[in-house]
Amino acid sequence: MYSRALTWWTILRIALAERLVYRGDFALGTLMRFLPIITQIFLWYAIFEARGNEKLAGFTFKDFVAYYLLTMVARAFSSMPGLASGIAGQIRSGEIKKFLIQPIDLLGFLLLGRVAHKLAYYAVAALPFALVFFLCRDFFPGWPTVTAWSAGILSLILCFLLGYYLEACMGLVGFWWLEISSLLFVYMLFSFFLSGHMFPLDMLPEPWHTLVALTPLQYLAYFPAAVLLGKIQGWDLVVGLIFEVEWVVLFVILSRVLFDRGTRRYSAYGG
Amino acid sequence: MTNHASYFRVFLTFARNSLVRNMTFRVNFLIECASSVTWTAMNLGFYLLIFQHTTQIGANTGWGKWEFFAFLATTMLVNSLVQAFFMPNCEDINELIRTGGLDFALLKPIDTQFLISLEKIDWSSLANFAAGLVLLIVSLVRMSVRPENPLVLAPTTVALYVFYVLCGVAILYSLMISLSATSIWLGQNRSLYDFWFYITNFSRYPMEIYDGRWGRPLRWAFTYLIPVLIVVNVPAQIIARPIAPGGSTVWPLAIFALLATAGSLAASRWVFQAALRNYRSASS
Fold first, then answer.
1. What's the pTM value of the predicted model, to 2 decimals?
2. How is chain B split into domains, by residue range?
3. What is the pLDDT of residue B279?
């Protein structure tokens, strides 16, 4: 038990050290990532002006700005750059063999790598994030309530797990397809528009709104941001969190099944 | 004269070679066409959603639904031309310098900037050009058949539109080649490409949205310092909204666009040649 914990701790430490090598580039890159939001904010300002500053889908202009900033936080938890393509690449190149012969679990190892990545990311990105949020403090309706705050943090942790296992499942499809770039393209296309980081999903007309709510995509950006903004409360909040947990559990199980089936049909080509 | 003719022939050869290369992997080509058009269609869906909630972008700017879709079509036309003709080449300049492949380009008896800017053409990007054309025609027809304030297109307007779309392509090309040329000094330009992406991000919307205490300086800077705002705005205003509801016309800006195009081309030529003078063959 102790030696096992020590193994995981070592993996985490190595991954952390690896991530902190380019910290300057990291911090600058984080600030740059806020730039595209500027044009979005001007666009929505113009739209609200044309509407005579009437609320849009329950959002005021200030809510929109706050919403965009909060989806940045959510995306920072749920985005897993290169995870799926990395797994598929390892399957194709045969590198995955090392996880099959060593007593280390692939999904656990990669998960710890991502945890370390995120920890390092927040250690460095906290400052630029804090700066932007401080500069934009007038756009927020105030500090979230204790319920919104704790539900928000819970949904952020769940959205990290959901992002990880969802992408891992797509990577594991590589056991069957070898090349998954077209699958990833479709996923990216839908998650770009339907995870809610382009617009609050409440804007969608029916039946699209219900359909999108049935997918796990909304938990990658929309749900945590809306919870922290206090837009989802009471019964809706409970149901939303339960569904988020369900999606995480589903993708954890699916990833295990895919890994199990995949390794059984894996024929280890490559050097 | 014969010199110009041979440049044109070289360009045709580039175009043919690229087409042959694209057609070698035909299914891949079709998938690339389809995926870029799907991406555009999704974007279109986003703006359709916006116009479910508003009648125009900005109060009294005149950018109603079909005017804005004509604007969007113009963005697609300009961007697809840049992506087809210049993007694949400018992406490679960095690699040419790192590997020393630029030596071979310098040795050829042809203008180096011409050679390395146009060598490859990505034909699949022109799928978006076709999509943009369709969207433009649909928007213009919708605007000319509406009962109130219908759009009347004169042949000169269309000619000017084509001309200013090409000016826009020239401005974006100048910006791109200048950024790529700086990799001769810096050796690496990954973050410069991010920079390019973020800057062109500002060209995607009507310039009227940059207003107020923060917007005005931005609009000024991206019109006069780095002229990316006029790339799409000038042609789109010419074709879709000749006179704004406020009474201001596009013509002063259109005249400035001529100067900006000439200026950007000259500046990028200068940057490119200054960078070449600093080139020290990197490889063996």
1. 0.83
2. 2-277
3. 79
Note whether B210 and B218 are within 8 A (CB). yes
For residue B198, the chain A residues in CB contact (below 8 A) are 32, 35-36
Contacts of B54 in chain A (CB under 8 A): 47, 50-51
Q: Which residues from chain B sit within 8 angstroms of residue A192, using beta carbons?
A: 42
Q: CA-CA distance, B115 to B103, in Å (whole number)? A: 12
Closest CB to B46: pick one of A25, A39, A198.
A198
Q: Is the pLDDT of residue B78 over 70?
A: yes
Instruction: Enter the ipTM.
Output: 0.83
- Tell me the helix, strand and coil percentages in chain B, rounded to 5: 80, 0, 20
Can you state the angle between helices A146-172 and A83-93, rounded to 10 degrees? 20
* Residue-wise burial string across A117-127, b where 16 or more C-beta atoms lie within 10 A, e elsewhere: bbebbeebbee
Using the Cβ of B27 and the Cβ atoms of chain A, whether some distance falls under 8 Å is answered with: no
pLDDT digit string, tens, across residues B164-175 = 999 999 999 998
Calculated CA dihedral for residues B28, B30, B35, B40, nearest 10 degrees: 150
A205/B52 touch (CB, cutoff 8 Å), yes or no:
yes
Domain boundaries, chain A: 2-265
End-to-end CA distance of chain B: 39
Chain B residue closest in CA terms to A184: B35
pLDDT of residue B248: 66
Which residue in B220, B223, B189 sits closest to B203, CA to CA?
Answer: B223
Contacts of residue A200 in chain B, CB cutoff 8 Å? none
Count of H-run helices and E-run strands, chain A: 13, 0
Residue B284 has pLDDT above 50, yes or no: no
Question: CB–CB of B208 and A46 under 8 A?
Answer: yes
One-letter amino acid at A36 equals P
pLDDT greater than 90 at residue B95: no
Whether B49 sits inside 8 A of A36 (CB atoms) is no
CA distances from A75 to A80, A109, A118, A223, B77 (A): 9, 22, 11, 11, 31
**Digit-coded pLDDT (tens) for A189-208:** 888 888 888 888 888 888 88
B86 has a pLDDT exceeding 90? no
Q: Looking at residue A25, what is its pLDDT? A: 65
| B191 vs A238: which has the higher pLDDT | A238
